[in-house]
Specification:
Two copies of one chain form a homodimer.
Chain A: E1 4-5, E2 24-37, E3 40-51, E4 59-65, E5 70-76, E6 83-84, E7 90-93, E8 96-99, E9 102-110, E10 117-118, E11 134-143, E12 146-155, E13 158-166, E14 173-179, E15 183-188, E16 197-203, E17 213-218, E18 225-231, E19 242-245, E20 250-254, E21 257-268, E22 273-282, E23 289-293, H1 303-306, E24 314-322, E25 325-332, E26 336-343, H2 344-349, E27 351-352
Antiparallel strand pairs in A: 1-26, 2-3, 3-9, 4-5, 6-7, 7-8, 9-10, 11-12, 12-13, 13-14, 15-16, 16-17, 17-18, 19-21, 20-21, 21-22, 22-23, 23-27, 24-25, 25-26
Chain lengths: 354, 354
């Protein structure tokens, strides 16, 4: 597999983006949902913002207080007792965990798929008690003329998946929580199967059970059932620690038959690395895995992928497939957005029966 | 609150039950679902079985292998490196957790609600890969002439909630996973609200988020959506560590208005104790809590509640409400089944606005 990263990478960085609030500054612009709209490539970016630094070395956590309808910044002096900030993404104090940045979703548009104009204001900003720690990692699926946007809703209640919709990317409707916590990395298929909508989701059990990819189906995109296991992490492989959905699956022909191709992310335990691979799923029963990438199709290799806010990460929420060319948009190091072109034929050639 | 425990308590013990398999012996009969059927009180008991002891002090974990369709017993000599058996319910080896007992569901019937005849064979035994560690803690809801049974399906994939149904308690139909892992303590309401079925469920996020009670609704009992928070653990209260659904809610009149009463379990952090309380929920929007028990309505006090397989536990999956009398059936110390009569008026008098 030889992914061809676009020359302009990273195509979007925090410097491309204005902050949404005077108390915040942008620390990441990454993990965009991808679709085509009115002849343009449209990205729905995750924009992560941190509180402007106060006193020296202070740890901060911006939170949206849905009851009061306002932003609040929690602050802890460095050296606070029982404070754990070893993971740059979180701060844990007295057993309670906060995020060091608050994410919202922002639209960017491009004629050529590489040079993007970013809107100055958020498309979806945290608004409910389920979103007080942010809205993250969206995916867009076009169904029946409506763009359905699922995204991660994070709060002290957990990490859940919520649904919104739009027809014009100006007005958005929220449809509430579709997968209760902890469950993220949901991808809704762009077509019904046997009359029902289908999604991959990633429950995150701990203790008994581990994060794994499941499929579910729905009559209305709101209520989901018929939950079935799809795939787990693989011991001894590049995806040995954890896996989850990535880009919205799309229809392909493989070995003369119809199937779905789902680009997913896999985490290598040591050193912790997020890479991308693919699952080939049965056309009629997408909980059945026909084949799976033996090796990653994209791994963190460049400086902007290996170093940054959270280094060693490539993570996708969307792509554009055009014949053999698969243009994957992805977040790199939880900080910037990049793009790479892959060959569908090469992706398929790198897969083996599970 | 003065619960009146029935004189015959515990009304069912492991001695009342024959093992389902020659390699197993019964260690617990507890947490029964409760309904009335053909003029009898019917319990659907959780029967926990452990492997017959082999070599001295050996730790064992019985597992149902769904692919081979047979029972397997995993064995570890005591002193095995990296083995943790401090919790009698589980054994953790090399970061993987197993259960020391395998549960199935068994029917018991009674004319007087106190003396029960237990069937000799399981009603629902583990049968799928989602149930390889057992089926536990059922609840029965009668809707449209069908008895719907939700139960906890435990496996290395996590702790999920599955659905089955029956009309005669002889033939059972499985309907798959309705709440993906980790999610247990589901109670389905015995009536539609605004045309939709409603359930309480208890997602179990870790890290960010804590186990809490949520509500969801469904058009068909299979697909669930519109997930909303109902209640969390309360700092500084008897339910400060964890809460979850208990008995199937029922309609009551309180302060001159209709509402739902849901008996739930709450866990006190130190010393760890499982007790029961009640939530009064809005008749039309059961995600809205009108009132909540200030103190437990039933706490582990008797020897069979305080000592046993897992002491300090009273846990209910069902009750029979008859006017002011509320007969709660409950598991005690994860080992035996007991019953206690409470007064609805007293339960309501012990509640306060949340």
């Amino acid at each position: 597999m030889r992914p061809r990263r676009v020359d302009q990478n990273p195509i979007l960085t925090p410097a491309s983006i204005s902050a949404s609030h005077p108390d915040l500054h942008v620390v990441g612009v990454f993990n965009p949902a991808v679709t085509e709209h009115e002849g343009e490539v449209l990205l729905l970016l995750r924009v992560a913002e941190a509180a402007r630094a106060g006193a020296d070395g202070e740890i901060t956590a911006p939170v949206y207080d849905a009851e009061r309808g306002q932003l609040e910044v929690h602050r802890w002096p460095r050296g606070t007792k029982d404070l754990d900030a070893t993971d740059p993404r979180t701060v844990t104090v007295d057993g309670r965990t906060w995020l060091t940045s608050l994410s919202h979703l922002r639209i960017a548009r491009s004629r050529d798929g590489i040079h993007f104009e970013v809107e100055r204001t958020p498309a979806l900003f945290p608004a409910t008690p389920y979103e007080s720690f942010g809205v993250e990692d969206p995916r867009i699926t076009l169904l029946d003329g409506t763009y359905w946007i699922n995204y991660t809703a994070v709060s002290p209640l957990g990490i859940a998946t919520a649904l919104a919709s739009t027809t014009d990317f100006r007005t958005f409707h929220r449809h509430g929580i579709i997968f209760p916590p902890n469950n993220r990395d949901v991808t809704i298929f762009p077509d019904r199967i046997d009359g029902r909508y289908v999604a991959l989701h990633r429950p995150m059990p701990e203790g008994i059970g581990h994060p794994a990819m499941w499929a579910a189906s729905s009559a209305d995109l709101i209520s989901w059932g018929d939950h079935r296991l799809v795939a787990t992490a693989r011991e001894g492989s590049w995806d040995d620690a954890k896996i989850g959905g990535g880009a919205v699956p799309w229809r392909v022909r493989a070995d003369g038959r119809d199937a779905w191709l789902a680009v997913y992310h896999g985490v290598t335990r040591s050193p912790m690395t997020y890479a991308l691979g693919a699952l080939l799923l049965d056309a009629r029963d997408p909980s059945r895995v026909l084949a799976r990438s033996r090796e990653p199709i994209l791994s963190p290799e460049t400086p902007y992928e290996r170093e940054g806010f959270f280094g060693g990460v490539v993570f996708t929420c969307g792509l554009i497939a055009d014949g053999d060319r698969v243009r994957i948009y992805y977040g790199a190091a939880d900080g910037v957005t990049a793009a790479a072109d892959l060959s569908l034929e090469e992706i398929l050639a790198g897969m083996a029966s599970p």
